[in-house]
Sequence to fold (303 residues):
Amino acid sequence: MAMTEYPSLSVVVPCFNVEHVISLCIDSLLHQDYPEIKLKIIVVDDKSTDNTLSIVEKYDENPQIKIIRHFKNRGLSAARNSGIKAAKSDYVGFLDSDMVVENDWASAFVRELSKDGVVACMGGMKLATGLSENRLDKYLYNPKRGALKHGENTPIRFKWFLFNNSAIKREVINEIGLFDETISTYGGEDTDFAIRLWDKFPEGLRFTSKAVGEHHHQRPLAELQKKMEHYGSTTYLKLLERYPRHYKDLAGDWVSTLKGKLVFNPLMNSIVKFVYFAIPVPYLVRYFIAYSLMQGARNPAVE
Fold:
């Protein structure tokens, strides 16, 4: 392929307190088997309070890298938007700063986006080598979960589409708009963006297992449940109100209906928890996450 035939790609890497892995993330992007002149890495520091920014600034002289500094913490949506605004490329990629990728990552996304009708593609995710799976990991990285179960070359719905490891055509962002910066806490920014994307291009979203991000972040289930409960009491309710046509896809029909109250209640949660600790089936983690979401949605945050 002639150099002029390679589409340009800018990869937006939003950062917040990732001193333990950010250099690995950036180095993996610098070693792509893609023409350097066609690949830009835009690192956005969202006012980290550890040594992340000082590590990132060591790359300041590299012509492939652009560093954007936020002077206050504004959240993931704002960090991604800052990167998008700085990008002048055909395609825009997104990679969370706690991920490390193989050297064919960029090429894999470009191949997918070059196919007819494809406007956005998300990649796979696996636990970083050297980390031992905890119970939450066994669910999160299950190959039968989420977009993975739909396979390659098949349109996927918005509810499976995540942007932590993804790429999208720039012209499509121009058409649907940026990430919603009013969503500044955990959860919802991907869903909101994916809904707008899917509504406009329902056949255009794909998954590829050839662009895998090795994830260098672990959290206990209890921490994720706490975040999901807060999300349920705030942004999730706003999304249900904003997108009534997608109420069922967003699981809104489980919040206050009889079936929802029969399945997601403290007694049932205790029973499932007992079963889970006796027989730790990873898929039961899905129940605990959903339970936390429902608990939050039934107890809206006071603004």
